[in-house]
Amino acid sequence: MQLNGGQALIKALEMEGVEVIFGLPGGAILPVYDPIIDSPIRHILVRHEQGAGHMAEGYAHVTGKPGVAMVTSGPGATNIVTPLANAFMDSVPMVCITGQVPSAAIGSDAFQEADITGITQSVTKHNFLVTSAQDIPRVIREAFHIATTGRPGPVLVDIPKDMVDPNHPNSAMEWYWPTDAEVAAGLPGYKPTVTGHPRKIKEAAELILAAERPVIYAGGGILKARAAESLRELAELLDLPVVTTLMARGAFPDDHRLCLGMPGMHGNYTAIMSMQESDLLIALGSRFDDRVTGRQADFAPLAKVIHADIDPAELGKVRTPDVPIVGDCDKIITELVAAVRALLDGGAARPDLTSWWSTLSGWQERYPLAYEPQQEGEGLKPQAIIEALCDAAPEDCIVASGVGQHQMWASQFWKFRHPYTWVNSGGLGTMGFSVPAAIGAKVGHPERMVWAIDGDGCFQMTAQELVTAAAERIPVKIAILNNAYLGMVRQWQEMFYDERYSEVYLSPDLPDYVKWAEAMGCVAFRVEHPDDVAAVIEKANAIDDRPVVVEFRTDVAEKVFPMVPAGQSNSDVRVAPFQVRPAGDEAGEAQQ
Amino acid sequence: MSTVRHHTLSVLVENRAGVLARVVNLFSRRAYNIYSLAVAPTDDERFSRITIVVDVESAPLEQIVKQLNKLINVVKITELDPRAAVERELLLATVNASVAERPQVAELTRIFEGKIVAVSNEALTVSLEGHPNKIDDFEDLLRPFGIVQLQRTGRVALPKLDREPTRLTPVSSTGTRAS
Ligand SMILES: Cc1ncc(C[n+]2csc(CCOP(=O)(O)OP(=O)(O)O)c2C)c(N)n1
Ligand SMILES: [Mg+2]
Questions:
Q1: What is the pTM of this model?
Q2: Residues of B with CB below 8 A from A317's CB?
Q3: Which residues are near ligand 1 (CB < 6 Å)?
């Protein structure tokens, strides 16, 4: 069958099972936009290419399927670099198609030429520059294969215009669809290891049974490997405590008796200290990020480490593991459960973790995640807003967040009960992530409620995508925690720069978020009084035909606690000032 | 060059546009230092071989190898222990050599089994192929004459075969021919 390259591209995407493309056309990609009209694939026209990228990520996060974005050359392509970097950091499977100037013009500084394969080399898992229309089906198959297997990540495919332009002879191609074997043969250097080494697994099982203060350090890899079930089995088998990193919120239910919640810079006291005092860290799909470890030299100083990850380069990158296991987390955990069972059946003693659990519960009681009630004259308590949103939402509600204080409060105070209900930008910390990511998530799961919890600063970076949501009838809900500040930066300036506030004030009223949201086709509410919180949330939850924006006027001075200041030891975690007890009052009751 | 700081990696890569850039970019973005680098096609046109001498003070070798392995176009990495590898490098140098000094340069070149490849009234260009240590020595001894220009290729290396002498066949279908 003779096709042109543009038709072949769309057909290849259809063959890959793509349901939706997030994108925005332009000169170089124009020929591909013609066959889209006749394709069953839905195209969502964004207002800025960054939006397309984050939507593809949001879609991928909640569905587990690769998100697809398509943009034009030059500025279209450079606009999507941030989402690619974001997806790379957070291992999000994504395929990005970029138009490129015609092959004869490459290298001539042609109009809208940018060397996007060069630019994105270090922020993609791989990228391709198509050099023949005949290669398009193969390259697309390889791109999806690379994006979704091993450690997932973004793959960019750059296609010069002549390869897809039906009026150009270079676009002629004969259709084919490569087999799995052909894909493998085309990628001789790509063979991810999925099965963990049996000897390492046995060693890990032995270490676990010998540990007195074990902690499972569950990272985003659990979600990527769809290993939440096996994780639970492992934890329950021996009553092992579990911490879930920012990327793994929801991978283990927050209301489970074994769940300690989030560790790290703004983790809760117990999660942080459990790792510091642990004698065995069972790191599963986590990568010892500096936001988790604090000063690395002081991190979990007493612990042996079992480290399982699909990416061999993560093992030993930061911390040398005692037992490294390369492979797919789900397979490894399943094998680990079997290995532990076998040892127990063979007469090995169950570890007695009673004393460890009593230490942990002591910390939980003494330093719960808590905040002081709102005082007269103060704005709403952001933590209370998150709790109210969570209380009113169905259990399977998806929450996306921006980056800043609101993100930390969302992660701390939302109760995550299911995997794939939390969508955030962890590794790159990209402000402006939440609105488009929430839209992408809602496209992936139209039947589920999707809330974005956003900051006023973040909202101003990508709010235009609410026009996309309104036009495409994607009824997401956005909560803006308007503290009139780049709050997280303000917090650092308050704590570490003598309250010298430099370029962090945004104003509560400029812009007028309600008018702005309405102008973008959303229903909008503003909440200033605590008594109105629940009622407005209820109203917002009832709207299901349009996007809704609720602006909450929150306390400007509220800070995120606990906090491990950057570069310090986790053992020096600072709890909220009202939780600090006078010296000598070490053994007393937990304070309210 | 102290051998502890430096390790030689022989990296078999797909012979595609931009692959060298990917390898070099990886070193720069992860703050690994390259000491020298040589690249050439192999006898199998699908592959090229990059010989990289890395500075392992900048990062542990294991991490460098693992990160390199993540590049999709990298097919195979062999770490070459200097004791178990044949290593070669080529030097070209133009040296000031007045008529009076010329015999000394020529003699030095002869002792090292190098070649005089060009001659002018004031200068000589010499070439030397050999083990990098030998090249180092030669360079040191040339210096007093006044080096006008000097270019070294960076080392290339292959694993030693168990039998030394010279009639060698290809290592494998994807390997370069040893000579
Ligand atoms: C694109 C980008 N620019 C700058 C930063 C640095 N930064 C981190 S949090 C933050 C403040 C975010 O403000 P806002 O969205 O209002 O959230 P808040 O902290 O007030 O909840 C800034 C500027 C960033 N993470 N991303
Ligand atoms: Mg703010």
A1: 0.94
A2: 63, 66
A3: A 402-406, 429-431, 455-458, 481, 483, 485-489
Q: Are A244 and A343 in contact (CB under 8 A)?
A: no
Please tell me whether residues B11 and B79 are part of one structural domain.
Answer: yes
Both tokens of A434, joined, read 């939440």
Scan for tokens 């297997």, then name that residue: A149
Of ligand 1's listed atoms, the one at least distance from the Cα of A406 is 21
Rounded to whole angstroms, the Cα distance separating A324 from A332 reads 11
How many angstroms does the Cα of residue A353 sit away from the middle of ligand 1? Answer: 41
Which among B15, B49, B70 is the top mutation candidate for probing chain A, defined by the most A β-carbons within 10 Å of its own β-carbon? B70
Please write the tens of the pLDDT for every residue from A73-122.
999 999 999 999 999 999 999 999 999 999 999 999 999 999 999 999 99
Mark whether B78 and B96 lie in a shared domain: no
Distance from CA of B159 to the nearest CA of A (A): 20
Query: What's the Cα-to-Cα distance from A411 to each of A14, A268, A406, A453, A514, rounded to whole Å?
Result: 36, 11, 9, 10, 26
Q: How far apart are the first and last CA of chain B?
A: 25
- The residues of A annotated with a catalytic role in the active site are 49, 111-112, 161, 488
CB burial string A438-449: b at 16+ within 10 A, e below: bbbbbbbbeebb
Q: Cβ distance A560 to A577 under 8 Å?
A: no
ipTM: 0.91
* B63: chain A residues, CB-CB within 8 Å: 313, 316-317
The domains found in chain A, sorted by start residue, are 2-186 (3.40.50.970), 198-366 (3.40.50.1220), 382-553 (3.40.50.970)
Say if CB A242 and CB A275 are below 8 A apart.
no
**Is B22 in Cβ contact with A121 (below 8 Å)?**
yes
Residue of A nearest to B77 (CA): A189
CA distance A462 to A164: 31
The closest alpha carbon to A122, from B24, B66, B73, belongs to B24
pLDDT digit string (tens) for A442-493? 999 999 999 999 999 999 999 999 999 999 999 999 999 999 999 999 999 9
φ/ψ of B47, rounded to 5, equals -130, 155
The whole domain housing B121 covers 87-156
- Contact between A178 and A186 (Cβ < 8 Å): yes
Residue with the two structure tokens 């939390």: A422
For a pocket test of ligand 1, which of A403, A559, A560 has the largest count of ligand atoms closer than 8 A to its C-beta?
A: A403
Which of A475, A212, A483 lies closest to A349 in space, CA to CA? A212
Whichever domain contains B20, its CATH number is 3.30.70.260
